[in-house]
Amino acid sequence: MSNICLLPVVIGGVLLLLAGECSSQLAAGDRDTLVAIRKGWGNPRSLTSWDPASAIDHCSWDGVTCGGRVVTELSLHYMSLTGTVPAAVCDLANLTRLDLSYNDLSGAFPAATLYRCSRLRFLDLSNNGLDGALPHDIGSLSPAMEHLNLSMNSFSGTVPPAVASLPALRSLLLDTNGFTGAYPAAEIGKLAGLECLRLSGNEFAPAPVPVAFAKLTKLTYLGMSEMNIIGEIREALSSLTELTLLDLSSNNLTGAIPAWVWRHEKLEYLYLYNNTLIGELPRTVTAVNLIEIDLSINQLRGEMSEDFGNLRNLTFLSLYMNKITGTIPASIWLLPELVLVRIQNNNFTGALPAVISPNIQWIEMGNNMFSGSIPRTAITLRGFWAENNQLDCELPADMSKLASLTDLSVPDNRITGPIPATIKLLLNLKSLNLSGNQLTGPIP
Ligand SMILES: *[C@@H]1O[C@H](CO)[C@@H](O)[C@H](O)[C@H]1NC(C)=O
Ligand SMILES: *[C@@H]1O[C@H](CO)[C@@H](O)[C@H](O)[C@H]1NC(C)=O
Ligand SMILES: *[C@@H]1O[C@H](CO)[C@@H](O)[C@H](O)[C@H]1NC(C)=O
Ligand SMILES: *[C@@H]1O[C@H](CO)[C@@H](O)[C@H](O)[C@H]1NC(C)=O
Ligand SMILES: *[C@@H]1O[C@H](CO)[C@@H](O)[C@H](O)[C@H]1NC(C)=O
Ligand SMILES: *[C@@H]1O[C@H](CO)[C@@H](O)[C@H](O)[C@H]1NC(C)=O
Ligand SMILES: *[C@@H]1O[C@H](CO)[C@@H](O)[C@H](O)[C@H]1NC(C)=O
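YS: structure for the whole thing
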């Protein structure tokens, strides 16, 4: 999945223009500072290259990036760093980017330390063990802050409104923590430059998607799953025309999916699964760049329109556990990029075409009313689950055209005729369930 939150951060080449004498002084200072930082973390093995005795230029030490001669970035992900962030970090006066993700940092948000990084634009503390409430003056981080990533920690308490008082923010990631209460929706709604917002996976107080978010018209990524959202998907959010990812899954959304969702042409990832959405599938879909659609575990009805067959980039279609009826247009089975189709527990009828898209690997379509045959030619198909349908043809005589199958499960259908001898050509097969059919003759 493309991650819009992974925005490249360009550090100004301007630093090259620093006057020689001044920059060498700064450089010496930075070297000492790096050594102090290393000491602050207890001289961990991952920072062995930060050796004051070594002849190697500190700008070449692991994780260190300089602009000209001064340190501008520290990229210290997966360095097994523990404890808190050493106070010396912000003695690097030109530090703009600090990535400490995927470590074992613990304790409270290192506020006093980080407020001194006056040029900081990018702060990634994600995937650590930081806890406690965020400080109410978190807006004292550098006013240049563009990216604040606090995902996957154990922060708790309410999200302070000050988190949205950093005027240049382009990404704000607070997902997968233990935040509670109401989050500062009105304040976040004023962050006009916001492109990526992730609030998923927090026990917020039940509330609808804030109307204030309709003003965030630069948003490309909106992640709001598993955070107790109630109410309908609002019409007002149709203003978010730049969205490439919309994730409102695992909430308590009610009502129908608004038409704008199927019109936004930049949308690539649509996750609305595990809600209580009702209404019919759309008749018109012009969001042709969709790559993944997951609407499973809802109460959706209606039929799949031919328009879904125009989604040339669709790789993943998940509609299981709804009340969808009708035949799936053949054009969908032929979509060139389609890999995974999960449509079990609906009320689909009709048959699959004999030949399906050469990329499909997994089809889960049990508990429907499909008739016809299993696909006859599907060279890449690895798993086919179609239990409890009305498949009523014989198994394909030449099963060699299904040679990638590892799982073939079609119990409780009306499959007739003999088990073809060519079933022996399914050399990758790990599980086979043909029970509850009308097969005749011996197992070859
Ligand atoms: C944290 O968020 C920033 C900004 O969106 C992003 O560039 C970075 O890759 C994220 N970190 C991780 C570990 O995904
Ligand atoms: C680097 O930091 C020093 C000290 O704060 C400052 O004087 C200088 O202007 C900075 N250089 C750049 C290019 O930001
Ligand atoms: C559905 O969402 C609820 C939260 O609303 C969550 O607890 C549950 O694990 C989710 N189930 C699935 C299958 O994602
Ligand atoms: C959301 O739905 C789940 C069951 O799907 C229910 O347990 C929970 O109480 C609901 N929460 C709200 C806020 O309505
Ligand atoms: C599909 O993806 C390709 C390559 O990323 C892109 O050029 C194209 O515009 C996308 N959309 C459609 C409808 O093919
Ligand atoms: C499917 O349709 C049949 C008859 O139309 C109905 O009895 C059954 O309850 C439906 N199943 C689902 C899962 O909606
Ligand atoms: C085959 O499917 C039937 C019906 O779903 C089930 O009862 C049986 O346990 C399955 N057999 C195996 C070996 O998994």
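YS: worth flagging: The chain has two domains: 8-343+356-361, 349-355+362-444.
IM: good catch. Also The radius of gyration is 27 Å.
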